[in-house]
Give the backbone structure.
Amino acid sequence: MKKIYSVLVENRSGVLSKVAGLFSRRSFNIDSLAVGETEDRAVSCMTIVSSGDDRTLEQIEKQLNKKIDVIKIKTYNSEQSVSRELMLIKVKYNKSNRREIMENVDAMKADIVDMSENLMMIQICDTPERAQMMIKLLSGISIVEIARTGTLALPKCEEKI
């Protein structure tokens, strides 16, 4: 089971290290980690995706709440939130596979953001599952390099009337 933790922390040096250390000491796994400033420069938001059984996921939240630098924690599952990941994939192409690559890019609603004579860079911003699907589609082609951001998530919009 996976859970997404949106953790507001004080924007100071060493905070990321303390949070990562907590996961390491307790043998919790981090599937994805993304950190960035919020609208308040003194506060950062860490989006952490972790997996485990119910007890493990509950322990992660309790341990994070004990950290002094943690301001607030929100947890989401995939039904409660919208999540996205940015991925750049550089592939080697030739005349025979160029059309296939472009068809896959169109089908996945991705973009070609850079090209040279033999290399093409593709960008996809989608769910982590669809980013993984893009890798699978291009795995038969020569993938040169991949860079991924990690998951970002916000709760779904629910207006109370």
